[in-house]
Known about the structure:
This protein is α+β, with helices and mostly antiparallel strands. It has 3 domains: about 20-65, no CATH class; about 105-320, Oxidoreductase, molybdopterin-binding domain (Sulfite Oxidase, Chain A, domain 2, Alpha-Beta Complex); about 325-435, Immunoglobulin-like (Sandwich), CATH 2.60.40.650. It is about 15% helix and about 30% strand. The chain has 8 helices and 26 strands. The chain has helices spanning about 1-10, 15-20, 20-25, 35-50, 65-70, 145-150, 195-200, 235-240, and strands spanning about 85, 90-95, 110, 130-135, 140-145, 155-160, 160, 185, 190-195, 210-215, 230-235, 245-250, 250-255, 265, 280-285, 300, 315-320, 325-330, 335-340, 345-350, 355-360, 370, 375, 385-390, 395-405, 430-435. The strands form 7 sheets. A 5-stranded mixed sheet has the order 5-4-15-10-11. The longest helix has 16 residues, at about 35-50. The protein starts with a helix and ends with a strand. About 45% of the residues are buried. Molybdenum atom binds near residues 163, 164, 165, 271 and 272.
Amino acid sequence: MKxxxxxxxxxSADSSQADELVWGRRVDPVSRRGFxxxxxxxxxxxxVGASIPFAKYMPGGLIPAALAQTDAPFQLxxxxxxxxxNDRPINAETPAHLLDDDITPASRLFVRNNGIPPALASxxxxxxxxxxxxxxxxxxxTYRLSDLREKFTQHTLQLQIECGGxxxxxxxxxxxxxxxxxxxxxxxxxxxxxxxDVLEDCGVKDxxxxxxxxxxxxxxxxxxxxxxxxxxxxxxKAMEDESLIVWAMNGEPLPLLHGYPVRMLCAGWxxxxxxxxxxxxxxxxxxxxxxxxxxxxxxxxxxxxxxxxAVADEDMCIIxxxxxxxxxxxxxxxxxxxxTASLDVRGHAWAGDHRVRRVFTSIDFGATWQxxxxxxxxxxxxxxxxxxxxxxxxxxxxxxxARAVDENGISQPHVxxxxxxxxxxxxxxxxxxxxxxA
Length: 438
Ligand SMILES: Nc1nc2c(c(=O)[nH]1)N[C@H]1C(S)=C(S)[C@@H](COP(=O)(O)O)O[C@H]1N2
Ligand SMILES: [Mo]
């Protein structure tokens, strides 16, 4: 009992994370790696109920065995079956078979936070303001949510977002950061107004280069002068028909974790350009230099390098459109199947700014490929659904692989693509295991 008290006290130091209504129930808060890393020795000794004489030798992030053994799962409010990778900041991905819906429900959309979201209690959606500023704005303006709704034409689009680091876990040498497997992607339906309409309402000067965001989340350090992330897109991408400022997802107000009450949405690029809890847009006269724009963040070597190479910042280029990729969302990997029956498989495919032209499946480790049925996207920058019916020649172990090719003829690679220091852009073929019985 005493242990638990200590923990809850430690948590309440961080009030937004203590808010059970927002974050869901911390069934066993002590077993979370992020808590321990974020809280330091004091909270940890409180958690185990004793001092830790050899604390200086404890590996960072180690979950004390005394706590690790009581591991009821950590849950996130409104999420269903998703895998938590970190809880400070919250990062969670969706297993492939739970991404089967054509339109990703809120309960199955991955979460990628770089800092601490604003507390729900601190947000009054109707009073929320979005300011437009920057060197290249003609008239600085501030909008309330009601202004956005009333002043501009509303659009509803299905738009795909994928974290730039999706697939990072497969790179070797490993890259630091969240070890995403395949689940940092989703394609909900979003409602809002065009970013372009708002930018044009303020006026865009001829020297405008980039459109950047700031959000209301706070830095993990607690330093109010630091932003957890502030990224953006070149003006051309910002002015596209599908670049939106949204307040609804799948017909409901944005969930807090996905940016309530307003976020930016520029699909097909690393989702880090789609700012959540959006309270400022800046029309910049230069490439935006906010947090996580510079150095090695969301950048890859401008020229390919051998795995493990250290690359100087000036040789790293900003990631723009994401590469072609697909997922097998049904069936779940590891099924057993009689040789007499065919197997229906299906999934989604997407290709950054581009259309997917074809999807193929293989049951012989990529030696031969069969063309799958591929549907058109609901609209530009939505993922596309594919399906195939597969026959197996005899009993044994098989893998079903899926491979998409974009409209420019560029294919997913069978194996890991170019290694890069931060482990971005892994678009290798997805595969599932199938055991076929006689
Ligand atoms: N304000 C703010 N916006 C943000 C982030 C953030 O931490 N803070 N994370 C970015 C990153 S890296 C990703 S991948 C997406 C994740 O969006 P989601 O959590 O709604 O899936 O939001 C982006 N927008
Ligand atoms: Mo991301």
